[in-house]
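FAQ: What does a multi-protein file look like?

Like this. Sequence, then tokens, then the next protein.
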Amino acid sequence: MKTIGLIGGMSWESSSEYYRIINETVRERLGGLHSAECIMYSADFEQIENLQHQGKWEELTKLMLNLAQKLEGAGADFIIICTNTMHKMAEEVENNTNIPLLHIADATAEKIIEKGLGKLGLLGTNFTMEEDFFKKRLDEKYNIEVIIPSQNDRRIIDSVIYNELC
């Protein structure tokens, strides 16, 4: 079994869902008392959220790369970023580590294609819905059209994510 490196903490609630789903999937596939071999680095979301809203993406990229390299050094075989928004720097992480990154847009695309769909309604933080890092990958790599909510609805969704779900 490969060792999964999880970059989490953004939010811890999201990270716990990733951990739960990964382990449930392993148990369903392998049976018995099997569970996933995981290494998780849980970052302080307060720091990350502040940097996001200050537009300090270069600093966030360095942070994410550092976390990925720590997981690589700890023996992870591949990396998962346990949040949509921080996939903004996934390419940098991928290009500066020696282990693969399982990109959330690729996993999403697999399911969309499996179901024979060509469109995706995207919900997430404003960063995820408004910037191209997620939409562009789905469009260019998989020819999947991405639809986002209106500006007012995006504001409401972003507020729910940061103020109710995190």
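And here is the next protein:
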Amino acid sequence: MHIEQLSHWSGELGREMRLNRYGHNGMPIVVFPSSGGTHSEYYDFGMIDVCKDYIESGKVQFFTLTSIDSESWLHESKPAHDRALTHEAYDRYVISEAIPYIKHKTGWFDPMMTTGCSLGAYHALNFLLRHPDVFQTTVALSGVYDVRYFVGDYGNDHLVYENSPSDYIWNQNDAWFMDRYRSADIIICTGLGDWEQDGLPSYFTLKEAFEEKQIPAWFDEWGKDVSHDWIWWRRQMPYYLEKLFY
């Protein structure tokens, strides 16, 4: 398997940003880490290994990003608006710096895929919904999609609202976005077991909104034995890759 440990300067964030590449060809899959995770987390927890058949056959290649969640949504002493401002800087980094860098490395100029587990799943879905011209496929595993989970009641703060998928999706009626949502491959998965309860309210809210707005997506609930843990995410990711890249 082709592996590269990469780093590039982010003017948006004012620092070097590290990322790893796994694979030599195929659709780039942009991976966002879980809470407190690093750009190496996906490899360290065996996710790359369970996806190796798709990587080595050249169907996909993974780019595992660094997050700044500890400075944004997880920074509990920051006001909600300031956390959203920090996340907006990360959004600009991903779209205006990381994605062009990945395009340069791969020669891939079509829409890409996102994925992530836990907090990474939130990012995976949020980035697709906000930038459906850049991303047209996502596999979001065990996410929380209501930003109140991180910041509490955010009142009328529009910047926070714009990063809370289970809120803003209800008011998204723009034809440009809706056409792209309806042509995307969106997979949102949750278990029903231990430590999954925090994400279930926003999961079912999203499911209701997608159905009402006639956005085709696969909302997939696994059993009550399926917990919020890597042992299940290692089973789920190759299962969905098989459906997407058979």
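Q: Is there any per-entry metadata?
A: Some entries carry free-text notes. For the entry above: The two ends are 20 Å apart (CA to CA).
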